[in-house]
Amino acid sequence: MKCYLLLCTVVCVLSSVAARCVMRGDCTDTNGNIKPCAVDEEPKSILSNLTSTDRDRIFDHLIKRCPHLVYDEDGNQLEDDQILTCCDPVQIERFSQSMLMSDTVLGRCPVCLKNFGRQICELNCSPDQARFVNVNTERNNEGTVFVNEVNYRLHHDFMINAFQSCSEVVVPQSGMPAINLMCGNAPVCDADAWLGYTGDPDNNPFVSLRVNFLRVNSTEDSMNVRAPLCEETQEGDLPCSCMDCSANCPAGEIYVPPICTVLSINCISFSIAITFGVISVTVFVVLALFEYKRKARNINKKAPNEVNEINAITRGFQSIFEKIGIFSSSNPIMLFMFTSWVVFAMIFGLAQLQLTSNPLELWSDPNSVSRINLNYFNSRFGPFYRAAQIYLTMKGLEPFQVGNKTYGPAFRVEAIEELIKLEDAIMNIGRDVEGAVRLENVCYAPLRKRGDEQKITDCVSMSVSAYIPGRVVNNNTYLSSIQNCLNNYLSLSCLQSWGGGADPELALGGFVDKNYFDAHTLLINFPISNHLLKQDLKPVLEWEQKFIDLMHDYEQNWKSDFVDVAFAAERSIEDEITRISQAEIVPVAISYVLMFLYVIFALGNLRRLKTFFLDSKITVAITSIVVVLLAIFCAMGLLGYIKVTVTLLAINVIPFFILSVGIDNVFLMINSLHYIQTNLDKFEDYKEDMSFDKKRSYIFGKMMKNEGPSMFVSSLTQITCFAIGSIANFPAVRSFAIFASVSLAFLFVFQITAIIGILSLDYKRSIQNRFDLLCCVQRKILNDEDPLHSETPYESVTQKLMEPYSKFILNWRVKVIVAIIFMVFLSCCVVMIPHIEVGLDQNLALPTDSYVYKYLNAVNEILQLGPPVFFVLKSGLNFSNPEHQNVICGGQMCRDDSLTMQLFLAAQQKDTTYMGRMSNSWLDDFFDWASSPNLCCKYNTTDGSFCPSTATESECEFCTIPRSEYANGLRPGSEGFDRYFPFFLQDAPTDTCNKGGLASYYSNVNYVLDSEGRATVHDTNFMAYHTSLKTSHDYISAVKYGYEISENITHAIKKHTGQDVEVFAYSVFYVFYSQYLTAWGDTFVSLGYCLLGAFVINLLATGFNFMTTIAMMFTVVMVVLDMMGIMYMWNIQLNAVSCTNLIVAIGITVEFCSHLAYAYNTSSRPPSERVADAIVKVGATIITGITFTNIPIVVLAFSYTEIIEVFFFRMLFSLVILGFLHGFVFFPVLLSYLNNLKYKI
Asked: Where would I find the SSD domain in this sequence (predicted)?
């Protein structure tokens, strides 16, 4: 036992001998840098020979910074004389004070902070200092030996673990890793760079002594204590939050259910298509077999000759329109006067017509949730700033190497100089003209207070020039300056006079995964102030126009050859929409001219050149077109009276559609007049001795009796469809639908009045053998070669083909082939429908030669960071209550489903959520700001008002912020929060206190001060960023998850606090893309209403003839589904524009089918001949009046913008082709099958 005690004594003695110091105390001050003294002595008791007050103060510092020196291995406190250190009281105090900045940066994770403090404490104060520290000494002028450099050996495991424990701690203000603030200009922020920067006086202004951190693997000569990881919470500490330590995050990922597919085809559509295809083909094959057998069985039998009794409702319609025909043909002059009065009354409304090219007014529903959120955000925080942005892509420069590092073309010195040259030109806009608007008058300046002098140094700008001191390029140093700021753009050397730094993801482009040095594009960003009032926007719009003019001049005249530039200002899109809408007049006008020419020559039944002026209908064509245009002008006037805003796009396109519909009915009426004149002797009530007036009234009465009901049905169906289309989400589409509905209504009224009057006068002209256009010239004999048949109406080639066509298409073999082909094609289209892309790419609204088109492509292809998104928290929470704080903050003791935490976790799954960067949190930054004693908060002792943290006046002193009892004083108390929170929002970030909230948060929080200066927080917002969004799918998905996250946050707040406080997500593009979240539902609901309306109208108009109505509606549904298949095949997106065109498809298909259906219903032929008789009667009109009239649509394929080419040429051209094929080929086949079933033929 005695031997054992002796051995222990020897070991202790040897240990105490080995424990030595190599530096201690302060020796000299070299240029403001305090250098320690070099010593070779044993550690001393740091608490000896101190007064009681000093002892307690030093002891508190030891407990806070170096607790391992105060306690033994069993956790027992050592006696004062046993607390041995290699530092003196002055050093420990200075060390503790210097750690205050680290507290604000790393204090969110106590484990990290303690690991960082441990290595500093061991370096300066460890009693075993000599074992792992070597010093290099110098002698000053007084001969004093001091330590000038230290070699500090750290064990590999400690360095790696300490770095890992801190690597995930974030800066709430920016969302970037806090450790980046402590890595200087190192290319990679790793353990060596992190600790190396803390010992580098050349680059770190807060370091006075060079310390070389040496990573070693041996334990004998290194500081080798174990560094716990961030999830290893120490006794007495609070755990690191999930935001600062991913190991403490709750498990779970956002579940995205897989989509069932068969051969890459949606399961549901595949099943429906196969089932429908098999059943429909089987049905038609069976019907064909039955028809074949019946024909074989009844080959010698006479077909039934049932008389087709017209039902009472149809007879009622016929009677009404017969009277209208008689009246209108007998009183043309009166009707012309009536029409002119209506036009005169409506024409004054044109002066009040409201036109717009504002994208917000075009594509955002004023009553949508996203628009309401936009208005709420603007009313509480002001409108989001406008953007003036430039992309300089270095296409003519190559990457280069410096040492072992490769830099992209954007880092070449000539590229940087080009950027600064352009920036200078922009900043000098208006400086050569007295009183002109300058950048400082309109820029976004977060530190500028109301009434302050407007200085350009206050303006926010983001570009690589912010990384270069003085914006002067030094070939030898500019790369290191840029590299320093790329790692930490909020470092002291990178902070700008406006209070922040240039985010690398907003200053560079063309790199992947934050490999900034691969960039090939330099960005220039000038945020511009935005205003709600148009009056306040005038100087902004003026400066933006000058900016655009400068950029056009730069691009054309003085940019370097190696630069490709893309640019835009906030006003650019609206300006381009206005310009392009005017330019679109050219192709639209050409298509109108072609339509006019076709109508002029097609309306007349020309027999030969000699009778051209007798047979032509040029006057009828021109006046009919004028009447159609007058109907459109009347509609515009009425819209002006009722204050409906119209777009230039609608004014360009609507006349085209209305003309095709209007001229179709003119063709129908003229063809019917020809048929009646040709077959007068077949009408039992016709009398040969009728006077001219009676004969004319008789013919026009018959014509309207035959055609009026079908004209009414097709017009009413189209009006109904467009009226239902007016419930669309897009205002542009809504106004388009209203415009079309009103135009069609005026058109129908004018058709049954004025146009009949025109036809009546033309009939009189033709009967009297007067020339068209030259009514005074009259020929006595119409046909010199055959005078006996001179008054026989001529039958056109198209009309002559109808009888053989009817026999061909109604052949039982042809019918079954036609049915099978149409059913198979329909099934294929059904398969494609779920794969239609939803959205509307903004590029489609612009021509490819537009500078804005180029800019939008640059945004999609180059910009690495998506648009900012704000999560707005409405008032209702008590922010001085820790329980309410915990549902918002993201630091220690905050809930796992708090607002900040949910945004952080969403950003970790950015591929799913499209949240690219977590929210900045003013609440967490305020906690850090208020927890930095003698560093940030200052007040005026005379009146208690705010003082900046940099104030040096004697009356400004540091605040003493009372702490809350919650979590051992982790946060300021309720009184401290209410009193000092406004100070935080007024405090600008500085070198020593970078948590000041003026630059980042001043406009993000609304609060009210009571009479005693206590603040109550109301509405506030938290800003995050989306990932880079390139396609409509990306934008729509970003909106979807933004709304989902905000709903989850709202639910969590109510769950934990019981408060019904709403959180909503808002970004500038949400108002344009939120409606696509319900695009499929809205489309099918609108189509459903239109189909129901068309069904009811046709059912009533046919006198409840279910057979023809169902046949027509089945054909209409087929066309709509086929159109959707065409949309997939022709890359047409589903949006409100294409939805409106699908609604148009219903009306157009009814137009193609209704005349044939009506002719069938009113045919007096035997049942077996009625379908053929209907084809003969109206088939030519379907071809010449409906189909050929729309051929000029082809001209729209050469439109300036893709939106016209895609949504009007592609869709309307496809619609005409599908409508013709279904109305002229499939519908007679279907009608024939149903007719044969009904009459058992």
From this structure: 584-761
Determine whether 924 is exposed, middle or buried from the number of CB atoms within 10 Å of its CB (0-12, 13-18, 19+). Answer: buried
Highest mean pLDDT among 213-222, 244-253, 1166-1175: 213-222
Please count the CA atoms within 13 angstroms of the CA of 743 that sit on its side-chain side: 26
CA of 1059: how far to CAs of 1, 632, 1050, 1066, in Å?
A: 71, 55, 9, 22
- Say how far apart CA 887 and CA 903 lie, in whole Å: 12
Lowest mean pLDDT among 58-62, 146-150, 199-203, 854-858: 199-203
Q: What is the mean pLDDT of residues 298-307?
A: 58
Q: How confident is the model at residue 565 (pLDDT cuts 50, 70, 90)?
A: very high
Confirm if 286 and 661 have CB atoms less than 8 A apart.
no
CB-count burial class (<10 Å; 0-12, 13-18, 19+) for 1166: middle
Tell me the pLDDT tens digit for each residue of 510-558: 998 888 999 999 999 999 999 988 899 999 999 999 999 999 999 999 9
pLDDT digits (tens, 9 = 90+) for 264-288: 677 777 788 888 888 888 888 888 8
Are 963 and 948 in contact by the 8 Å Cβ rule? The answer is no
Q: What average pLDDT score do residues 890-913 get?
A: 89
Distance CA 840, CA 935 (A): 52
For the entire predicted model, the pTM comes to: 0.84
Sign of the C-alpha dihedral computed for residues 200, 204, 209 and 213 taken in this order: negative
Residue type, 723: A
Q: From the CA atom positions of the chain, what is the Rg in Å?
A: 42
Report how far apart, in Å, the C-alpha atoms of 1107 and of each of 294, 806, 1239 are: 21, 20, 12
Classified as helix, coil or strand, 402 is strand
Please list the alpha-helical segments (H only) found in 563-691: 572-583, 585-602, 612-615, 618-641, 648-678
CA distance 871 to 899: 9
Q: Residue 608: its pLDDT value, please? A: 58
H or E segment and range at residue 1066: strand 1063-1066
In the beta sheet, which residues pair with residue 405? 402
Looking at residue 3, what is its pLDDT? 41
Q: Hunting for tokens 């600062």 — which residue is that?
A: 244
Distance CA 252, CA 249 (A): 9
Q: Determine the residue type at 1055.
A: K
Q: How far apart are CA 142 and CA 160, in angstroms?
A: 42
Distances (CA, A) of 476 to 413, 467, 473: 10, 14, 9
- pLDDT: is 245 or 1195 the higher one? 245
What's the distance, CA 720 to chain centroid?
32
Question: CA torsion, points 371, 373, 374, 379, in degrees to nearest 10?
Answer: 130
Amino acid type, 1194:
V
DSSP state of 963: B
Q: In whole angstroms, what is the distance from residue 120 CA to residue 154 CA?
A: 11
**Which has the closest alpha carbon to 1182: 718, 763, 795, 671?**
671
C-beta contacts of 762-771 below 8 A and 24+ residues apart? 762/617, 762/619, 762/620, 763/329, 763/673, 763/696, 763/699, 763/700, 764/692, 764/696, 765/619, 766/614, 767/692, 769/614, 770/614, 771/613, 771/614
